[in-house]
Amino acid sequence: MTIATHLPPGERDYQENGVKRKCKVLVKFLSGPLKKKVMNELDYRSGEAKSIVRKLYAVVNNLALELEKETRAVKKMKVKDENLGKAFSKKGTLKVNSKKPVITVGITSGTKGSAAVPAKVPEQRKFSRPPHPKKCFHCEGEHEFINCPTATEADKAAIREKRRAEFKARQQKKRG
Asked: Which domain of life is it from (predicted)?
């Protein structure tokens, strides 16, 4: 037999009411939005948690986590809205006049991620290079050496070897 069955009827009610009072006091001292959510949960869904402290704790804990997630989401949305408002620079427009041709090169960044994450748009970098000379080394015509009609295959091979040797000499100078 348990102690509760040996107690007089008035004391048994006092113990049950004592737990209910503790639960009421705990709910009463919760913060504003959390208090409203917990009271709503107790009234409409988890009525048994009014008299059991462990169940009340579980309800409060779950609702507190949900409320925290909601506030984080709202803060993120506010930050995104603020960033969208600052699309234009306060310094004004920047004009660059360049006579050199600009070549755009795409650079992809290797990122780890799940399939649910959309792929990022590659960043664009601009490099300015001098235009490629379209002058033939053999006859100095207005075409590239590879397409030269007067050069024979032997001439092309000899000039390629000469160019390779010059390139290797430049590489050795850089290293040494």
From this structure: Eukaryota
**pLDDT of res. 79:** 81
Give the chain's count of helices (H) and strands (E): 5, 2
Name the stretches of the chain with pLDDT < 70: 1-17, 83-133, 176
**Contact by Cβ (8 Å): 102, 109:** no
Under 8 Å between Cβ of 39 and 23: no
Let me know if residue 79 belongs to a domain. yes
Q: What is the pLDDT of residue 31?
A: 83
Q: State whether 73 and 141 are in the same domain.
A: no
Range of the domain at 60: 3-84
Total domains in the fold of the chain: 2
Q: How many CB atoms lie within 10 A of CB 55?
A: 16
Asked whether residue 109 is assigned to any structural domain, the reply reads no
- Is 25 part of any domain? yes
> Which tens digit of pLDDT belongs to each residue from 72-108?
999 888 887 776 665 555 565 555 555 555 555 555 5
Q: Are residues 76 and 10 in the same domain?
A: yes
Identify the sign of the CA torsion 8, 9, 14, 20: positive
Q: Report which residue type is found at 124.
A: Q
Q: Which pTM does this prediction carry?
A: 0.36
